Amino acid sequence: MLASTIGHVADNDYLSARFKSAFAFLKRADLASLPLGRVDIDGDEVFANVQEYATVPAGEKLMEAHRRYYDVQFVVSGEEVMEYAPLEGLAAAQPFDEGSDFGLYLPPDRPSSIVLRAGDVAVLAPEDAHKPGCALAAPARVRKVVVKVRA
User: Which segments within 59-111 are labelled E, that is strand?
Assistant: First the structure.
């Protein structure tokens, strides 16, 4: 699933060589057994972060966004709700950290959301704020691989 506003549709080349590398990595059969942490795919151009966590109620989290990287979020096991909204117009909850390419933002009144289950992928562009790791009905364990693709 890719979701965007019509004003950003032409801004993103989801079929570039970097995205093809990301999608090929996510087809690996060993994603469930990879160690947690960073896995290099193509240096700082494309790399993966292997994560495990328990989901929490959406109200306990802020939106996040990145400037230098797309997020290709792939659920290996478990399920979660991900809220998302255009970044434009959202108030920063803290100063953007350029070093880690990470910012936190206050959520809009009416974000969109999607349920992601094992095998599902969502691609978030730099213009997208997102709130992954939200509980569907009750907290659940999630294993996820987030491939970072340089914008």
Answer: 63-65, 69-77, 79-86, 103-105
DSSP classification of residue 4? -
| Distance of alpha carbon 130 from alpha carbon 65, whole angstroms | 6
Residue with tokens 């990287």: 69
- Is-contact 121 74, C-beta < 8 A? yes
Are the beta carbons of 108 and 99 closer than 8 angstroms?
no
Question: How big is the CA angle at 148 (ends 142 and 146), to the nearest 5 degrees?
Answer: 5
Per-residue pLDDT of 125-149, as tens digits, reads 999 999 999 999 999 999 999 999 9
Tokens of 12: 């993103």
The token pair that represents 115 in the structure block = 């349920």
Task: Report, as ranges of residue numbers, the positions in the chain whose pLDDT lies below 70.
Answer: 1-6, 9
Query: Which of 4, 134, 119, 115 is CA-nearest to residue 64?
Result: 134
The distance of Cα 87 from the centroid of its chain, to the nearest Å, equals 14
DSSP state of 97: B
